[in-house]
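Support case: user asked for a sample of complex input and structure output to validate their parser. Sending the pair below.
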Amino acid sequence: MTKSIENNASPEAVDLARLKQENYTLAQQVKRLIKAESKQYEYQEELDAQLKEYKKLNELNKKINATLDIRKIFALTSEYIIYNLEYERVIFFEQFEYTGSYTVCAHDGYYNHLEKSAIAELVINEDDPFLLPLQEGNEYLICKADSDNKDLAEYRSKLLTNEYLIYPLCPHKRPHALLAVGNSAENSGFYRRVSEDKGELLGIDNLVGLLNSAVENHILFTTMETALEQKRQAEAKYRGIFENAIEGIFQATPDGRFISCNPATAAILGYETPEEVIENITDIEHQLYVDPKLRNVLFEKMRNRVDVKNFEVEFFSKDGSKRWMRLSTRPFFDEKGEILYFDEIFQDITERKQAEEELQKFNDELEKRVAERTEELEKIRAELELQNEELQKTYQELEVETADRILTMEKLREKDQLMIQQNRMAAMGEMLGNIAHQWRQPLNVLGLKIQQLGLSYEYGEFSKELLYANIDKAMEIICHMSQTIDDFRNFSMPDRVKSQFSIDQTIVKTCSMIEESFRENCIIVDVNIGGDLQVNGYPNEYSQVLLNILMNAKDALLERGICDPLITVASWQENGRAVVTITDNAGGIKDEILGNIFDAYFTTKNLGKGTGIGLFMSKKIIENRMGGRLTVRNVTGGAEFRIEV
Amino acid sequence: MITMGTSAGVGYSEHRDPTQAGKNAAHMAMEKSGSTQPDFVFVFATVGYNQQELIRSIRAATSGAPLSGCSGEGIITREIVAETNFCVSVMVINSDELRFNNACVKETGRRTDIAGEQLAAELAPYLSADNIACFILADGLNFDFDPFLASFEKAVQRDPPLPVFGGLASDNWTSRKTYQYHNDDVFSEGIACVIMSGKGNIAWGINHGCVPVGGKRTITRSKDNIIYEIDGIPVLEVMKDYFEDDWQNQWNKMSLNLCLGFKTPEHIRQGYEEYIIRYMMGKDDQDGHVTIQSDVRDGTDLWLVRRDRELIRNGMQSISRQIKEKTGSGKPKFVLHFECVGRGKVIFREDEKIELIRSLQKDIGEDVPWIGFYTYGEIGPITKFNCFHNFTAVVTAVY
């Protein structure tokens, strides 16, 4: 459209060409206008969005400045981030002082219950490599939708965002808090994308700047509040100690005036109030110190910067009485090193002093008494030494006597052994006697049978039948005699272990052993047993006891020449025990010896006949071995032995 | 006898949690209307929310009252204009003089002529002599108005035609998916529709505010709603001179700054401005064409036009006058407002935009329940003829 207009053209053509040129120019201007207008609208929209953002940021700033509550600050900021910066999700982490880890203290944009719970429990460890770039001074961490950094990508699932930014708040080596903003993959298209574009980051950068100040203010405020609270508590504590202490506490000047004092000072010194002390005591050295020189000693120590502790002095009370005090001081010096004033804590130790004095008196008295007593004891000791010498002598004599007694005991034991041996021999003699009685009759029969064979032969009556009949009878008698030996041998063997046995069978067996001997002496043994009485014990020893008593009864019956000698043996059960009585009609036992018949070596028999051991041993067997009782009493016509097992 | 009439209340929320936002907006609306059991619910919301959760919470809060609505680029209520990805407005209506029956058509695709017939069939049970108006809330990415209207009106068989108002659902420039709401259903590529009947009237005003830049041009190659060439030059070649270098990636917003004006047809020219404006909704770089939302023919004259803020301001006053001419001193029961996305924050400063809407609301009536959204296309009759518009505000007052 820039071709030149020819010089010879008609005016109309010239006008037309000019109009076309103008039209073209105009069209180009319109195009530029449209482009400019488009750009203007675009900038205007951006500007509008920025202005809105700044306006809201300003409002947020005002709200944040109105509070020092960090949780409220984070809540307000979360709202701003979501509704103005238009990130979908926001989390604030605060460092937990004790562990150093970051825990979630505010979050928004998580509307699903499970997501909310998961985020609320999220913890970032201080030493997580993920935070390393921040500790190294990076301004922020950024994980874009396409980031493949392993550490950053790992936190996508933890933060429940596909793209996110993390800013440190108060960014020192250990940031006080962390701010995370981001978007889920699902919704990121409708939110401000996470991008490193400076324009996109401008909003969050501005906000973080604001937040850093707010968080620092909060930390400062919290620290200050804590310090103030500690100070308040310390003051209250000090005031409490000062007012309620039982020790006197005061401040005073070197020239002897009180600056302040507590109620205990007044009470100890006999005044009503601290004010009264301050008003009335204006020369401590002379009004308070009984010995003013001691105050100079005290001051000398303080000037030499020596800690004065437990310094004991005597003070005057208001009423003029003297009281002992123990004090400690702490001086405060001016620039020249002179004592400006000093704190003093003192305690009334008058009572303790008095107690000490009394204790000293008591000690003196005690020492005196100890000396006296020592003298007495010395005398007693000398007497005891004499007694001791006598005792030594007596002891030696006793030793000799004891040796004699031991010798006697030895002899007695030998005697016992001898008696036991005698008893055994007697028992064996009796046993042989009994065997002899048992055998006498069968031996007679055996003799007759043998003689019968001779006679029958002589008379021609011998036959084979008679021979075998007599052999059979002879063998029967021999077997019986052999059985008798077995019975006596078993009887004489002591039982090794306890066993269940029949009392009645034992009585029958024992009686059978003496049967022939008693029959020979015309002694009737009447056995009256009461059934099958079973006991636990030693059957052979029990049998020995029975035999012993029966043999004693036989001796007594024969010795006293009783016309119709009778021994009655009876057994029955009584109160769960097996009772056996052996009664004779030999006239009984004299009352004066009745109590001694179970004693060892006691016998009424003629010399060489009784050992005095039988009944003693019988009693031991029944009472010690079998837990029963063996007693004796006189009954009509004789004596009755009673065995209970 | 107690006369209740019509009561409406509008609630609003920008809460990011869809469940909470829906509940808050619904409760606020019911509180304002004094209703516990609404007769009908209009919902307009932006696309950042999980739409299903949002509608579920509103349905729960409004006791399952019949509901219709769609997604918008922003929402408009009384004194509040919000163009963000997260805002929702709810209007609840109780009336014993007006009836609201809703219907929907899903999966329309590009066959909007069939959709017109289907919708008419769905609405058939509710067609009656006391029908006042029909509100169409259709998908804004795949809608061709002319075939839809033709088949719809043919099926409904009303003379004069039933006035149709509405807007095309939008998706905040993402060009992915818009949403339509019908009771519990949330769907895309469909139409949600409400037919209002009973004792009541409707007044409306429509105005764009665009002005031609340059002279007349002619469409030299086209098919239905697709334009290939203007003055024998490929249409994208014509357009690129007016756009910045990155125009191909910024088409949605770039094309707002330059649109197409067609001479207003003779039969409606008396009730409207000189040009009807069309937004170039889409383009195809491969095929070299642009798409608009109504049909054109080869040989049709067109003018490139641009928005003019002053004209828009004046146009708002014109809308107010148009409505008040009908309502007189009477106060509307409620207002439904369909505002083009090209008239929001992409052209006005935040304060200007709010002031503009407030001024209109003040003119129409204090405290009138007001609900609207930023659309990808507006529908409103010129005289008795239903028309599709771009870059306009269609304000309908029920009185």
